[in-house]
Design goal:
There is one protein chain. With 95 residues, the chain is an all-alpha fold. The protein has a domain of 57 residues: Exonuclease VII, small subunit (Helix Hairpins). It has two helices and no strands. The longest helix is centred in the middle third of the chain and has 33 residues. It is elongated and about 50 Å long.
Length: 95
Amino acid sequence: MPTKPPETPAGFEASMEALEALVARMEAGDLPLEQSLREYQHGVELIRACQNALDEAQRKIETLANGDPPVASTEMDPNDTTKVPDIPDSDDVPF
């Protein structure tokens, strides 16, 4: 199952805090084997999600540093009057 990166910086921070708490529980050595395995698996998922978020942030930084424009959302706001429609207006008469 692919792990999605946290959607927000706050989500990333929460994932890191959860990972730190998980490590502390495992280092205490008081968990039974089955629970340790579940915690370990959850930890791997948290690590992957955090790494994906860091990779995405790195890509954004590199894009901005290279002077490339940020990728715009593909969603269009029907109320946005600053956009020029792609479809030519048949009533437009050039002078």
